[in-house]
Amino acid sequence: MRTVKWNGVYPAVTTKFKENGDLDIPAFLKNIEHQIDAGVNGIIIGGSLGESSTLTHDDRLALLEATVAAFGDQTDVLLNVAEGATTAAIELVQRAEKAGAHGFMLLPPMMYKPTDQEVADYFKTVARSTKLPILLYNNPVDYKIEITLPIFEQLASEANIQAVKESTRDISNVTRMKNKFGDRFKILCGVDTLAMEELLMGADGWVAGLVCAFPKETVAIYELVKAGKIDEALEIYRWFLPILELDINPQLVQNIKLAEVMTGIGTEPVRAPRHILVGDERKRVIKILEDGIASRPILPDYKNL
Q: InterPro entries recorded for this chain (predicted)?
């Protein structure tokens, strides 16, 4: 079985579409190539940023198979699983395992506010349907379900539940997890605007959004922090923050796709019901990106620290 290390930068990649809404696999793979060249440690397909709610199981598997075929020997390839029914989650997990997935990001049950016990049982049941490693997604801000410490206690015996994407927006939750569980669960920051702070508090990795448009800058921050070069990392991070704030916005997909276009490594079409940015909001985002690109920092040799 493939071992996922759960450290480094894991882009939650955008899904590329043609103007008619069909998948654009060549554009999708072009962006992933830039991620790998920058030194990321894994790819997460079909997450919130990947327009998960508009993707069918067949869409997800097509993206997965193309990524594994092109880059599976170079990086971890994870598929997001966000389902309303346990049976649907198991079906997708088992199909994806056969298609070559290296692991999964797993959300709590969607479209229903479950009890804590229902959340725990859902995760256990899905985990037991596969041998592949799992990253749980803890995002009570957007999904209204928190994976609490007592839930994690129940899940600690499930060997393939190995990590959590920490998106509670509470930096101290990193310390709570470390105090309670030590290194049992790897912790990956899931909020771009808190990434350096959580890395300094002991997070193992970063599930990133703006990495889709700025892969080298994102990986450089991670590598500099882990090498103890905090001042160098902070200089890049402070430059990056106005751009990173585009990730904590209801239109994060549109924002980041526009950023990908402006850095030359993506396309802008989205799948309905989304629309691309227009009007004053588009002008506002373009101004942020133009200012950032004009002052883009010169990066150190972050791959050889």
A: Aldolase_TIM, DapA-like
84-98 residues labelled b (16+ CB within 10 A) or e (exposed): eebeebbebbebbbe
Cite the active site residues. 137, 165
1 within a domain of the structure (yes/no): no
For the stretch 55-81, pLDDT in tens is: 999 999 999 999 999 999 999 999 999
Strands in 186-189's sheet, in edge-to-edge order, are 8-11, 205-208, 186-189, 161-166, 134-138, 103-106, 76-81, 42-45
Strand bridging mode 161-166 / 103-106: unpaired
Q: Is there a domain that residue 186 lies in?
A: yes
For residue 44, tell me if it sits in a domain.
yes
Q: Residues 109-133: pLDDT tens digits?
A: 988 899 999 999 999 999 999 999 9
Mean pLDDT (whole number) for 2-28: 96
- 1 with 76: CB under 8 angstroms? no
The confidence score (pLDDT) of residue 2 equals 74
Binding residues for pyruvate: 207
Q: Number of structural domains, the chain?
A: 1
- Mark the binding-site residues, compressed into ranges: 207
CATH of the domain at 211: 3.20.20.70
* Structural domain harbouring 69: 8-304
Give percent of the chain above pLDDT 90.
97
Long-range contacts of 167-175 (CB under 8 A, 24+ apart): 167/137, 167/138, 167/139, 167/141, 167/142, 167/191, 168/138, 168/139, 168/140, 168/141, 169/141, 169/194, 171/197, 171/198, 171/201, 172/201, 174/198, 174/201, 174/202, 174/203, 175/201, 175/202
Is 126 part of a structural domain of the chain? Answer: yes
